[in-house]
């Protein structure tokens, strides 16, 4: 029995688990029917039989047996005298099935067919990958770190598909090691040199939204909706939520008992502070809530210019602005208003200061607590005291105080 071995080509199909069997059979059939058309001018009277398990293929030619000299179409008919040479019992009117010897096509044609088949398989894999991840846009995936480079990290999903986590989509505090599992959200599917490149992200607002959906059943069930998320990855995020059930407190549900629901998300986001606020169409109230943790005394709104002048007590100004201005920046993104902060009862803008808690990623909590114990709760209040005065008033060592002052001063120098 003449056949052509296609084990290597079929192995490609088996590796691409998402390519279903009917698609596989159709592709192989198309490739070899093209070969038949080139040789015989038509493929109408040929059957291509594929055995995917064994990795082989057979082609049979069908022709009707007619009386000698009455052949009108050589592709569809065969003379009786020719048919009985194959099988003596044949009679006129019967159909003759004859296997086509692959060697008749020639080695060059067979090689071309196998190359075409490999190319079609490759295209199918690409299309399957694009569709799979195109449908999963905005979903969280868990993948294994395979390679870490300076500008990106290569991840492998459960089917060994390659995913790219660019540096720009990583949280600044992210540090990856080969073999560890990483969670990210599918951001987009790019085409590079006609090949799909799956881009995933840990900085996108959708990543935080999906983490909340996982941790908060009320969001998953649709009882609470996320109206907007703004983030400064690794530092702070603000999430505006709204409840469709008056009996459910959306903020309380998202945070959980003693922060139980939000803590896991904060750890995943490398200690990113997450402010969950109640969404409202009252813009004045929304601005007030968006400047959390600061408490506002009063404000002047210009709805046409989308401008808000916010007045606060002196000790609240640094909280409203936040470290590197992150808090007020996110509040502006959330409310879509330009917000200017002023000290209450004065027309002058407050001198920029930063709450000590904003430095918790660089200064150990017990040191911050010790500084607060002596009345230093902002960066400037620490810098206003000399190193010797701080050493005298606190239980901190001289080297520790020097390190703290350097961290605080560097922040203002950058600003």
From TrEMBL:
Single GO biological process annotation from the record: transcription antitermination
SMART domains linked: S1
Taxon lineage: Bacteria, Pseudomonadati, Bacteroidota, Chitinophagia, Chitinophagales
Role of this protein: Participates in both transcription termination and antitermination.
Organism the protein comes from: Ilyomonas limi
Superkingdom of the source species: Bacteria
Subunit structure: Monomer. Binds directly to the core enzyme of the DNA-dependent RNA polymerase and to nascent RNA.
Presence of keyword RNA-binding: yes
Residue stretches making up the S1 motif domain: 136-203
Gene Ontology cellular component list: cytosol
Listed name of the protein: Transcription termination/antitermination protein NusA
């Amino acid at each position: 029995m003449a056949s052509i071995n296609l084990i290597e080509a079929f192995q490609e199909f088996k590796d691409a688990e998402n390519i279903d069997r009917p698609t596989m059979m159709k592709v192989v059939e198309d490739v070899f029917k093209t070969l038949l058309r080139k040789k015989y001018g038509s493929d109408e009277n040929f059957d291509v039989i594929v055995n995917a398990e064994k990795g082989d293929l057979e082609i049979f030619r069908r022709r009707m047996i007619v009386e000698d000299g009455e052949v009108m179409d050589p592709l569809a008919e065969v003379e009786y005298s020719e048919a009985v040479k194959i099988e003596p019992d044949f009679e006129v009117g019967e159909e003759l099935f004859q296997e086509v010897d692959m060697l008749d096509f020639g080695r060059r044609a067979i090689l071309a067919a196998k190359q075409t088949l490999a190319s079609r398989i490759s295209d199918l894999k690409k299309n399957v990958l694009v569709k799979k991840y195109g449908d999963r846009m905005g979903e969280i995936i868990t993948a294994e770190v395979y390679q870490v480079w300076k500008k990106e990290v290569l991840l492998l999903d459960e089917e060994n598909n390659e995913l790219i986590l660019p540096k720009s989509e990583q949280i600044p505090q992210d540090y990856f090691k080969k073999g560890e599992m990483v969670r990210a959200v599918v951001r987009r599917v790019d085409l590079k040199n006609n090949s799909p490149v799956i881009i995933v992200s840990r900085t996108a607002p959708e990543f935080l939204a999906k983490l909340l959906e996982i941790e908060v059943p009320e969001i998953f069930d649709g009882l609470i909706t996320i109206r907007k998320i703004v983030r400064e990855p690794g530092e702070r995020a603000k999430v505006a939520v709204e409840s469709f059930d008056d009996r459910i407190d959306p903020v309380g549900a998202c945070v959980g008992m003693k922060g139980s629901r939000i803590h896991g998300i904060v750890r995943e986001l490398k200690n990113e502070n997450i402010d969950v606020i109640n969404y409202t169409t009252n813009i004045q109230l929304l601005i007030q809530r968006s400047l959390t943790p600061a408490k506002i005394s009063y404000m002047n709104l210009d709805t046409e210019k989308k401008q808000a002048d916010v007045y606060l007590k002196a000790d609240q100004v640094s909280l409203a602005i936040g470290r590197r201005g992150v808090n007020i920046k996110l509040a502006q993104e959330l409310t879509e208003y330009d917000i200017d902060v002023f000290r209450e009862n004065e027309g002058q803008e407050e001198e920029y200061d930063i709450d000590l808690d904003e430095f918790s990623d660089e200064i150990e909590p017990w040191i911050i607590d010790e500084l607060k114990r002596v009345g230093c709760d902002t960066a400037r209040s620490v810098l206003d005291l000399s190193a010797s005065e701080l050493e005298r008033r606190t239980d901190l060592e001289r080297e520790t105080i020097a390190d703290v002052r350097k961290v605080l001063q560097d922040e203002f120098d950058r600003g």
